[in-house]
Structure formats: structure tokens, C-alpha cells
Amino acid sequence: MDDFIAARSQMALSLGFHIIFSCIGMVMPFFMAVSHFQWLRTGDSNYKNLTKAWSKGVAIFFATGAVSGTVLSFELGLLWPKFMEHAGPIFGMPFSLEGTAFFIEAIALGFFLYGWGRFHPWFHWFTGVVVGLSGLASGILVVAANAWMNSPAGFDFVNGNYVNIDPMRAMFNDAWLSQAIHMSLAAFAATGFAVAGVHALMILRRRNVQFHTRAFRIAALFAAVAAVLQPLSGDFSAKDVARRQPAKLAAMEAHFHTEKRASLVLGGLPDEQGKKVDYAIKIPGMLSFLAHGNFEQEVTGLDRIPVADQPPVLVPHLAFQLMVGLGMGMVALSLLYFLAIWRQKQWLRSNWLLKLFVAATPAGFIAVEAGWTVTEVGRQPWIINGVMRTADAVTPMPGIAYSFYLFSAVYVSLSLVVIFLLYRQIKMVPELYDRPAQLVAA
Amino acid sequence: MMQYVVITYLCLAILLYLLLGGADFGAGIMELFTRSKNRNAARQTMSHAIGPIWEANHMWLIIAVVILFVGFPRIYSVMSVYLHIPLLIMLMGIIARGTAFVFRHYDAVKDRMQQLYNRIFALSSAITPFFLGVIAASVLAGHIESAPSDFLSAYVFSWLHWFAVAVGVFTVALCGYLASVYSIGEAQTEADKRYFIRKTRTMTAIAFAAGGLVFLAAYVDGVPLWQWIFGNAVGSTAVALATVSLGVLAYAVGRGWTVLPRLLAGFQVTMILLAIGYWHFPDFIVVRNGANLSLLNSQAPLATITALGWALLLGSVFILPALYYLYYSFQREAEEVAEAAH
Ligand code: HDD
Ligand code: HEM
Ligand code: HEM
């Protein structure tokens, strides 16, 4: 394997791995806080058990998230030393603040996980909320760093030198807001559907129904609210991309030719040589509308981008379709769920709705991975959009392929162990908690 | 001005990582060198002591890395390139250790998997600080070439030499020493306490021997370690104080005190870092046939340093009280448990 490809694959693998754990680490504390709140308010011990069971899962994810994050902070240098040498001082602001957020998160987590029965119950509850808030803050901060790579700001690039550095302007670059909103919602949708799906499965199997129903309700509500908001935020992102990275927009929409009244391409297989999309549905004017809010406006195609600066089309386009498709599916399911809560209570007891939720278990996470593929592959060949090429940033050390194989092996085995542990956690629920409920069910 | 704030935080982060993270590593190292008869007691004491502060102890490494790549980007990138291999192995150690620790704690079924987690935890607890030591030594040893001619001299001999190996061993020994001293105060029974005191004696001896090894290796590799430490008043005083405090520590341990020995052990490690750091300051990476990279000449632009300094100061306002309260709460509780056990 080519070293450059290996370095990119290793980065993608590490980030793709980390994002799953960080989403869960960001969102689960909020679910736990709700459940914990319900317990403190109602004294229903199911909620206490639920909070404890979830917090064990979270501890596993948190540790995996923390080590994979630690690895990333070294990996940025191990793989992209030239990038970090120049970018570090510019986009470092969010990372320095993130350090604080992580620290607070780690401290609060210590209080929360080991604080049962040791502190005032509401102080204990509050530490759980702090875990969630600081996790969310660190997610937003690190995304601001990534947004800077898409939309570099806060410096002048003069004769190959980076001068007049302004870390605050770099942090609040043009892309940070749209990306931060979209990513935060994505974390809630992805984690929410994943958790709701697992508990839905348990309800369908008639295991500890009381316990799992409470869990399902909390997760599904968060998921549904986030999923319904996601297309709005996605539209905001797309308009943003159209403005700041026309090449990326063209790649993800497989828009080869600049045109007025540009049509939206649904599905299809881009043919990069032939500069066309096969088997696609086209909606005239729609792309102009979505990108610029006007059916007539011209949308820049790849033909306006110098060949050396063109991103690949196939991967971003397919990934984009996948994300949007899944997003729409999640919206549909969420609307059904809202209808069930408000008007059609009997649906909540029916199996088909639960089965749909089981089917949607991985949807959010697949959409997250797809969305990041759009953002990152769509930025190629640049590591800092328009400023530094990815190929110029890669480490001079040969043999990165071996390091990639090593990382792949480690991450695959870790994923397997985490799945195994989670399976054991869920299997042990009847023994550890919820005895009475099982008797009722029996 | 702000640059010194940033440098202070960098030194502090490295020191605290060695003291707190190091004691964590030491806990695993002690498991590795404990006969199976005592292993369970040792493990339980340690896991009780580490649990709540586990995540926080390892944040210091991340703080140090962030300060490096934001504030001293050239140092970060040179280390990343020439010390790629030891960094990579250290990362593998961090992954293995962090996950094994949590897995063994949270696996809902306690079966034979526990032995596997224990094995991985203990081994990676030794490997990680070993390579941390190797990296620290390589940064100063002057084996990093300014214009390497081939793969081996660029990426392997930059860190593979006797001095680095000896410092690696010494770091492992120091971690074990720290953990053994810390754990005296955590012991829940009189027998455990006696056991940890014996352990402390052994670990002191091992650390001493490893220290001698470092001087030997430095001599073999032509690293002027002797001069670094004894060539100036600060270095020699620091080492002298550390040695004297060993005696005080032995006395305090003999009297059954628990707090003073911890402070003294921390003091000794601080003095060792000071002795070596003082001579080199502000140099951070010593390069063969080239210009050294120093904390003063490889800085990020002023705007970045200022922002970073403020971020660190502001962060401390939130972090330090919370961290103190965390240690305090769980420390007090550990003492109550220990009292109750007597
Ligand atoms: C649950 C996950 C999820 C769902 C349902 C969606 N997205 Fe998304 N999307 C993400 C998760 C995501 C992401 C993984 O979080 C990304 C990657 C970078 C980012 O900021 O968010 C992303 C990026 C991303 C980008 C690129 C942003 C950039 O490069 O700055 C656009 C244009 C959209 N999305 C648009 C949409 C639209 C129109 C959706 C309609 C349903 C949609 N997304 C659903
Ligand atoms: C969009 C991408 C990312 C998001 C949303 C994100 C978010 C998070 C969150 C929420 C955590 C807390 C740990 C948890 O709860 O499991 C975390 C951990 C961590 N992340 Fe990321 N992260 C991202 C990418 C990165 C990158 C690129 C780096 C490296 C530079 C990084 C470095 C870290 C570190 C060092 C930790 C461990 C901190 C701890 O112990 O709490 N992350 N990340
Ligand atoms: C966690 C969510 C993220 C995912 C899943 C992700 C995914 C990817 C992927 C797929 C690539 C490879 C692109 C290619 O080479 O074709 C990549 C590259 C890269 N990403 Fe991200 N990314 C994420 C967030 C971030 C963040 C927050 C940062 C930094 C602050 C970052 C920094 C980089 C760098 C430095 C590269 C390598 C250079 C490049 O290919 O442009 N990424 N990432």
C-alpha cells in the first residue's frame, strides 16, 4: 500500500472510530441525567437501575473514547507533521479550550461514576449534567478546528508563510457554526436511535419490559427531536458549503457542469471520466434552490475548478446520498413516533413501531460516518482548503502502511471487545436489576 | 511574559503526568511484580484508589501535547517525525492499558476474561512508561540527526541507544516506586500495610539500581549526564536534597506515617526532573550537528502564545478547585475506610 494512501486511511480509520465513542460520550450523559432526574423526582427504582446500567455502558465508551482521542492528538503529528507545524498555532485555540472541557468532563465523570450514595443526590445529579455539557462543548470545539480546515481564517498566507495569526478569528471561521450545529444534532440522533433500537429489541423479546420501556422512551424522544431538526441544519450546511467550498458542493452533488437552474441529482452512479451521472433522477432547478435559495441561480460545477484541485466525485456523492437518505428515513420514523405519542397511543404498544426502531439502530451512525466522508473527502486534495495540499503534509517516514495495518487490527479487536462487553451488560440486566419486573412479566 | 506562563504550564503538565499518571502506571507494574498470593489485595487497593481519579490523571498528557502543538509546533513536529516509532508503541500501550482497566472493572460477568484484562493491564503498564522514558531520553540525548542519511539513522537510532533504554527502565522503576509509596496510605488492613512497606523498600532499591544503570549507559553512549547534573549548583543541590529526603522517607514510613512519604516521593521525582531540566533549559530537543530546538526559539507567534496562556489560566480557574475537591472527597473517604478497618 502506498504510504500516502495508508496515512489517509489511518487518519480516516482513527477518526471514524473515535467519532462513534465521542458521540456516545457526548449524548449518553444527557439520557442518564433525564433518567436520574426521574428517579430523584418519582423514586421509581427502575429509573435508578437504568441510570446505573447506562452509566456502566458509558464508562466503557468513555474510556475507549478517551484513549482513541489521546491517540488522535499524537496521530495528527505522526501522520501530518507539516500540517501541524503550520496549523497548530492557528487552529490551536479550540484545542486549548477543549483541554479544559475534557478535564472538567473527566473530573465530573469521576464524581458521577463513583459518587453513588456519597454526595448529596442533587449534587451527584449535577455532576452527571456537567459530564454531558462539557462533552458537548468539547465536541463543538474540536469541530471548530475541523471547520477551520474547510474554511481557513485568522491568518494571511504570504509567500508560503503564515503571518498575522489571530487565533480567535481562526476559531470562529465561516464554517464553525453550521458544522457545530449539524454535528451536535447528529450526535443526538445517532446515539438516540442506537440506544432506542437496542431497548426496542429487548421490549420485543419481552425482557424486563418496564426497565426497557423507560429507557426506550428517553432515547427515542431525544432521537426524534434531533432527527426532525437535522434536515433544516443540513440545508444550512449545504448553503454554507456552496458559498465557501463550491468544489465540495459540486462533488457531493455530482454536478459536473456549471449551469443556471441546476438540477438536483438523486441517487445515480457518477461517471467521473464521462462527466455524467448514470441512472439518476433529476429535479430541475432544485439544486440552485437548495444551494442558493433561488431556482434560477447558477451553481458552479467541477468544470470551473482546475483539474489539480478537483475532489473525487464518486465517494462524496454516494456518501452524501446515503446520509440524506438515512436522514429522511429517520425523519419519517420520528414523525410516526410523535404521532404515536400525541394521537395514536395504541401504536406505542404495537410491535411494528418497535420493529422500525430496531431496524433504525445503526442508521444514525452510518449517517455520521457518511457525513464525515462527504466533508473530508470532499475537501481533497486540500488538507487546509486552498492553502496546503494533503500530499504536502504527510510524514516523510516510510512504511506507514504497517502502522495502518496495526491500527486496523487494534481498532477491529477493540470494537469486538466493546460489543462483547455491551452484550454482557445487557444480558446481565435481569440479574442485576429489574427482578420484580421479570416476575411480573413471567 | 505570557511565554513563561505557557512554559510553566508545560513543565507542570509533564511533572504532574509523571507524578499522577506515573503512580497509575506503577500500580500496574506492582501487579506485574507481585506474587499471586498478594495480587488480589494489591489490585483491590489500587483499583479503589485509582478509580475515581483515573481519567483525570491521564489528562495531563493531553494538556502537555496540546501545549506542544499549539505553542511549540516545530518541537511537536520534529518529535513526531523522528520519534515516530516509540510514540507509536507508547500509543499502543495507552490504548491497551486504558481499555483493559475499564474492561476489567465494568465487565458484567467476572470470568476468565478477567485474567486476560489483568495480564494486558499489567504488561502495558510497564511498556507505556518505558517508552515515555525512551522518548524523554531521546529528546535530550542528541542522537536525532539534523540531516539523516538513511532510514535507520533517521527513525531508529534517533531513539534506540543504551541511554534511552536505561532511562526507560528507570522511568518504569520510578513509577513502581511512586505507586508503592502512595499505596501505603491506601492499605485497608495492617497486613496489607506491612506488605506495601516491604514493597516500597524493594522498589527503592530497584529505582536506585536503575539510576546507576542510567549513568552507566550515559557513559557508554557519550551522553554528558554527569555534567548536566553535577556541573551546576542547582542540579547537584536538587540531587542532594532528593537523596537526603530518602532517609527522611524511610523514617516516616517506619513511623507509619502516610502523608509525608507521599509528599517526599513526589518531591524526589520533582528534584530529578529539575536537575536534568535546569541544565537544558530552554533547549527541548538536542539535535546532532544542528541547531537545538528550544522553548524560546521554537515558539508559536505571540498572538497564539498569548491566547494559549489565557486559555490555560482560565482553564485552571475551573479545573484546579474541581480537581482538588475530587481528590479530597475520595481521599477522605479512603481514610475513613482505613480507619474503620483498624
Ligand atoms: C445523524 C447523522 C446525520 C444526518 C441524519 C444528516 N447529516 Fe449531514 N452530516 C453529518 C451527519 C448527518 C455529520 C457527520 O455530522 C457531518 C460531517 C461534518 C459535519 O459538520 O457534520 C455532516 C455533514 C453535512 C454536510 C457537509 C457540511 C460541511 O462540509 O461543512 C452537508 C451539506 C450535510 N451534512 C447536509 C445534510 C442534509 C441536507 C441532511 C438531510 C437530511 C443531513 N445532512 C442529514
Ligand atoms: C468531530 C470530531 C470529534 C468529536 C465530535 C470529538 C468529541 C469528543 C468527545 C465528546 C470526547 C469526550 C470523550 C467521551 O465522552 O467519550 C472526546 C475525547 C477526546 N478527543 Fe475527540 N472528538 C473529535 C475529534 C477529535 C480529534 C481530531 C482529536 C485530536 C486532536 C480529539 C481528541 C480527543 C481527546 C484527546 C479525547 C480524550 C479526552 C478525555 O479523556 O476526555 N478528538 N472527543
Ligand atoms: C470524527 C469525525 C471525523 C471523521 C469521521 C473524519 C474523517 C476523515 C476522513 C474520511 C479522512 C480522509 C479523507 C481523505 O484522505 O480522502 C480524514 C482526513 C483528515 N481529517 Fe478528518 N474526520 C473527522 C474529523 C476531523 C477533525 C475534527 C479534524 C481535525 C481537527 C480532522 C483532521 C483530519 C486530517 C488532518 C486529515 C488528513 C488530511 C486529509 O485527508 O485532508 N478530521 N478525516
From TrEMBL, chain A:
<comment type="similarity">
    <text>Belongs to the cytochrome ubiquinol oxidase subunit 1 family.</text>
</comment>
<dbReference type="GO" id="GO:0016682">
    <property type="term" value="F:oxidoreductase activity, acting on diphenols and related substances as donors, oxygen as acceptor"/>
</dbReference>
<keyword id="KW-0479">Metal-binding</keyword>
<feature type="transmembrane region" description="Helical">
    <location>
        <begin position="12"/>
        <end position="37"/>
    </location>
</feature>
<feature type="transmembrane region" description="Helical">
    <location>
        <begin position="352"/>
        <end position="372"/>
    </location>
</feature>
<dbReference type="GO" id="GO:0070069">
    <property type="term" value="C:cytochrome complex"/>
</dbReference>
<keyword id="KW-0408">Iron</keyword>
<keyword id="KW-0813">Transport</keyword>
<keyword id="KW-0249">Electron transport</keyword>
<dbReference type="GO" id="GO:0005886">
    <property type="term" value="C:plasma membrane"/>
</dbReference>
<keyword id="KW-0472">Membrane</keyword>
<feature type="transmembrane region" description="Helical">
    <location>
        <begin position="123"/>
        <end position="149"/>
    </location>
</feature>
<keyword id="KW-1133">Transmembrane helix</keyword>
<dbReference type="GO" id="GO:0020037">
    <property type="term" value="F:heme binding"/>
</dbReference>
<keyword id="KW-0349">Heme</keyword>
<dbReference type="GO" id="GO:0046872">
    <property type="term" value="F:metal ion binding"/>
</dbReference>
<dbReference type="GO" id="GO:0019646">
    <property type="term" value="P:aerobic electron transport chain"/>
</dbReference>
<feature type="transmembrane region" description="Helical">
    <location>
        <begin position="402"/>
        <end position="423"/>
    </location>
</feature>
<feature type="transmembrane region" description="Helical">
    <location>
        <begin position="58"/>
        <end position="80"/>
    </location>
</feature>
<feature type="transmembrane region" description="Helical">
    <location>
        <begin position="100"/>
        <end position="116"/>
    </location>
</feature>
<dbReference type="Pfam" id="PF01654">
    <property type="entry name" value="Cyt_bd_oxida_I"/>
</dbReference>
<keyword id="KW-0812">Transmembrane</keyword>
<keyword id="KW-1003">Cell membrane</keyword>
<feature type="transmembrane region" description="Helical">
    <location>
        <begin position="181"/>
        <end position="203"/>
    </location>
</feature>
<feature type="transmembrane region" description="Helical">
    <location>
        <begin position="215"/>
        <end position="233"/>
    </location>
</feature>
<feature type="transmembrane region" description="Helical">
    <location>
        <begin position="318"/>
        <end position="340"/>
    </location>
</feature>
<dbReference type="GO" id="GO:0009055">
    <property type="term" value="F:electron transfer activity"/>
</dbReference>
<dbReference type="InterPro" id="IPR002585">
    <property type="entry name" value="Cyt-d_ubiquinol_oxidase_su_1"/>
</dbReference>
<protein>
    <submittedName>
        <fullName>Cytochrome ubiquinol oxidase subunit I</fullName>
    </submittedName>
</protein>
